[in-house]
């Protein structure tokens, strides 16, 4: 697997898991609205997908400038 693709997928997983944890913490502490399980999973999947796509596009540009 291409290292850029692998990195993008891993960052997507990190974004997805972080969103899930934050959503459950908000429900647990009563800070946000109560989410159904389906809504929480859908939100986490969307965030994970967005993070993976953005990472896939941005990472080569950052590496080409020598900042990585």
From TrEMBL:
It comes from Haloferax namakaokahaiae. It comes from the Archaea. Residues 1-68 form the DUF7981 domain. The chain crosses the membrane at residues 39-58. This is DUF7981 domain-containing protein. Keywords: Membrane, Transmembrane, Transmembrane helix.
